[in-house]
Design a protein that fits this description.
The complex is a heterodimer. By secondary structure, chain A is mostly helical. Chain A has 2 helices and no strands. The longest helix of chain A has 25 residues. By secondary structure, chain B is an alpha+beta fold. Chain B has 5 domains: 87 residues, Alpha-Beta Plaits; 234 residues, no CATH class; 86 residues, Calcium-transporting ATPase, cytoplasmic transduction domain A, CATH 2.70.150.10; 154 residues, Rossmann fold, CATH 3.40.50.1000; 104 residues, Calcium-transporting ATPase, cytoplasmic domain N (3-Layer(aba) Sandwich). Chain B is 52% helix and 17% strand. Chain B contains 26 helices and 26 strands. The longest helix of chain B has 35 residues. The chains are: A mainly alpha, B alpha+beta.
Chain lengths: 52, 731
């Protein structure tokens, strides 16, 4: 059962990364326009070079 | 995570697919005010639209950045001071996009966004905590013992307590507010269950106890937040779209100061000011005509389709449309005192009466909250007595009762159905503005229609072209082509479709308020009002042609039916609803339309107050009335009805008074809306039934002390999922 001492912190840490990523995506307003974002990937404007 | 409701409007033709941006043309438009502008773009709907609009705007001088929001169909533009909305609208129109300036003050978009983001954040955190706590709980349920179990409980506590404190805040706040108002809302038992479950579990953990309800507390928070978020999203989308409609007409007027024309806000006008109204413009104020002659369209105010002559001395009211010639008005009442505003005040009064409607959810909560508290306290009392004062055991039982009965499913039962139904209606072109509108719509048994602008488009259509000689038709085509009067436009368009070539009429001249005249082969020819062509008025809408040789001939017109009107009326009658027609128009016009649509019960020449009185009378007979109307004359009736629908083309006041706005020009979805609303109501009731059934099974278990945390978790998730799936069954 000693393995629990390692696995539980690891699973919590990984979950925490997911949570942090969610918080970041929310703060950077990525859920404001879901329809627009779904369409923007079809846009050819910045295919060759990144947006400055 | 919850499923995001996808709300889509019916697709329109994509302007970007046809028109490629013409940058040079755009650059030609010069810029001239505030830094942040928001425009409504009803036409954008694809990737090409986004790049066309953003690219086109960014090429304009003074524009720093432009960002399209496709979900809300808006573009927000950051620009230098000196760029105004008109400078952006014209180039967008050149690209093929209709754009309207939105009043940022009315939108308050950032505020609602912030609320939505806050809820989403809490939902995400609760979801994370739920998964982790559940993982640990499964280990305990599958037989962890002693020190391992205690450790798992401690870790669960470390995750669950902060989560509950953070994520439960919306419930705690609203529970506190309702307690302060001395009411027992749904949020009181919810908050009590969450707090009690967490603190009991914490106490049990310190004592090394067997059962901890951390997973239940967190799961409860998660499911309830999901319901709350769905609810918020539906309302936010409706609110922003309704706000957009309200902001469409930014009210301005042309004031004449000594000879110079200045564009001023309607609010800045004072009685005595002179205002110029151009042909095609709407009267911004009540006033008296001092100069000019024209015809005015009163259909939005009175329902009359026939334009009325206006010359010096005529009294006009705000909201009427000037048709043929420029008019100068002396303002008699502006702003708060104008007839438009008085009508709006009337609506506000009727509105407050409407909010008294209790929704299904409220009625359920009213029964539920006291019942649950009573059950929990009596369980506590009984076990205190039965065990001879074992406080810990009794509190455990009463907490279990609270958790099991907690309205996870109840909290989702209504929002899930409302989200599914309003998404469905939105795709059909109906926008639900009011929270309880769906439920009220389901109860409707009588439908009252207005005529002009609702069942008809308010656009005339010539009826008797075949009765005229080909020579007359060519003269009529020439004369009608020279005027912007609605009857002329309709006649010219109909003649063009038939391939009639205009006769070579010279010296064409429009006489405002009368008609058009010209010369053909040395004879004077005229097209216009009956009196002008030397005739008496007909009962129908008509324009007269005097070809200079004999007796004048009349072209009669009927109002064009709105697409889907026949289908809507037939659909409603098939559903067994009584359909009535209440119009302010003349008897001949109304009778004709009623016969065409098969409406037996109709009233013509109804004044605004009579319409409202008729609706109130129907309500007095115990009928639930759905009023469909668009004009100012309908506003009081719309507000007095049980539930109301108005087309997007209606005046502000009418749209504000109605619960549902019809976005497209097709009126057929009205019949569907009634069907969907009834179905939605049935689903809501089923959902209450389902969550009640779960309680019937689970509560006795909790009362006798057999409810384990596993049973609580199962009951909670099963009922929530069944309820959501049931909502999705909506067809």
């Amino acid at each position: 059962m000693d393995i629990l001492g390692t696995l539980i912190p690891v699973s919590l840490f990984l979950g925490g990364i997911g949570l942090a990523a969610f918080v970041w995506s929310l703060k950077s307003k990525q859920y404001d326009d879901p329809q627009g974002d779904a369409n923007r990937i079809l846009n050819k404007d910045w295919d060759d070079h990144p947006k400055p | 995570m919850t499923a995001m409701p996808r709300l889509e409007t019916p697709l329109s033709a994509c302007p970007a697919c046809a028109a490629v941006p013409a940058a040079e043309r755009l650059a030609a438009h010069a810029a001239a005010a505030p830094a942040r502008l928001v425009l409504s773009l009803p036409g954008v709907h694809c990737a090409a639209c986004i790049s066309t609009v953003e690219g086109g705007l960014q090429r304009l001088p003074g524009v720093r950045s432009a960002r399209v929001n496709l979900t809300l169909r808006r573009v927000s533009v950051d620009a230098d001071a000196g760029v105004d909305a008109a400078a952006l609208i014209a180039p967008l129109a050149a690209l093929g996009y209709e754009a309207h300036e939105l009043d940022p003050g009315l939108l308050s978009a950032t505020e609602t966004d912030r609320q939505g983001r806050e809820l989403l954040m809490r939902l995400g955190v609760a979801g994370f905590a739920m998964m982790n706590v559940m993982l640990l709980s499964v280990a305990v349920w599958s037989g962890a013992e002693g020190a391992t179990r205690d450790m798992f409980h401690w870790i669960s506590a470390a995750i669950a307590i902060p989560t509950v404190l953070f994520c439960g805040q919306p419930f705690f706040r609203s529970a506190w507010a309702s307690l302060k108002a001395r009411r027992l809302g749904m949020d009181v038992p919810i908050s009590l269950a969450i707090i009690l479950a967490s603190s009991i579990s914490l106490y049990e953990t310190t004592q090394g106890g067997h059962h901890a309800y951390f997973d239940a507390a967190v799961m409860l928070t998660f499911f309830l937040l999901a319901g709350r978020y769905l609810d918020h999203r539906t309302r936010a989308v409706a609110r922003s779209a309704a706000g957009e409609l309200a902001a469409l007409e930014v009210p301005r007027a042309l004031r004449l100061d000594g000879g110079a024309e200045t564009l001023v806000a309607v609010g800045d006008l004072n009685p005595g000011d002179l205002v110029l109204v151009r042909p095609g413009g709407r009267m911004p104020v009540d006033g008296v005509v001092t100069l000019g002659a024209s015809e005015i369209d009163r259909s939005l105010l009175t329902g009359e389709t026939l334009p009325v002559y206006a010359g010096a001395g005529s009294v006009v009211s705000a909201g009427e449309v000037n048709l043929t010639g420029p008019l100068t008005l002396r303002v008699t009442a502006a702003g708060r005192d104008s007839s438009l505003h008085r009508m709006a005040d009337l609506v506000a009064m009727a509105e407050s009466a409407k909010t008294r409607y209790t929704s299904l959810a409220d009625r359920a909560a009213r029964l539920y909250s006291p019942g649950v508290h009573l059950l929990s306290f009596s369980a506590f009392g009984y076990w205190m007595w039965a065990t001879g004062g074992d406080l810990r055991f009794a509190i455990n039982i009463s907490a279990a009762v609270l958790i099991i009965t907690c309205p996870c499913a109840l909290g989702l039962a209504v929002p899930a159905v409302v989200t599914a139904a309003s998404g469905k209606l939105f795709r059909k072109g109906l926008l639900i503005k009011h929270g309880t509108a769906l439920e009220r719509l389901a109860e409707v048994d009588t439908v009252v229609f207005d005529k002009t602008g609702t069942l008809t488009l308010g656009a005339p259509e010539p009826m008797n072209i075949d009765a005229h000689s080909p020579a007359d038709l060519t003269v009529a085509a020439a004369l009608a082509g020279a005027s912007a009067h609605p009857l002329s436009l309709a006649l010219a368009a109909a003649l063009r479709v038939r391939g009639v070539r205009p006769a070579p009429v010279t010296d064409l001249r429009e006489v405002p308020g009368y008609g058009v005249e010209g010369r053909l082969d040395g004879r004077a020819v005229r097209l216009g009002r009956a009196g002008w062509a030397g005739q008496g008025d007909l009962s129908e809408t008509a324009t007269w042609l005097d070809n200079g040789t004999g007796t004048p001939a009349a072209f009669t017109f009927a109002d064009r039916l709105r697409p889907g009107a026949a289908k809507a009326v037939a659909g409603l009658q098939a559903q067994g609803k009584a359909v009535l027609l209440l119009s302010g128009d003349t008897e001949g016009a109304v009778a004709g339309l009623a016969a065409r649509l098969g409406i037996a019960d109709w009233t013509a020449g109804a004044l605004p107050a009579e319409k409202a009185a008729r609706v109130a009378e129907l309500a007095g007979q115990g009928r639930r009335v759905l009023m469909v109307g668009d004009g100012l004359n309908d506003t009081a009736a719309l507000a007095a009805a049980h539930v109301s629908i108005s087309p997007a083309s209606a005046l502000d006041a009418a749209r504000t008074a109605s619960d549902i706005v019809l976005l497209g020009s097709d009126i057929a979805p009205v019949a569907d809306a009634l069907r969907i609303a009834r179905q939605a109501r049935r689903r809501m009731k089923e959902n209450f039934g389902i969550s009640f059934a779960y309680n019937i099974i689970a509560v006795p278990l909790a009362l006798v002390g057999l409810a384990t945390p596993l049973a609580a978790a199962l009951a909670m998730s099963l009922s929530s999922i069944t309820v959501s799936l049931n909502a999705l069954r909506l067809k």
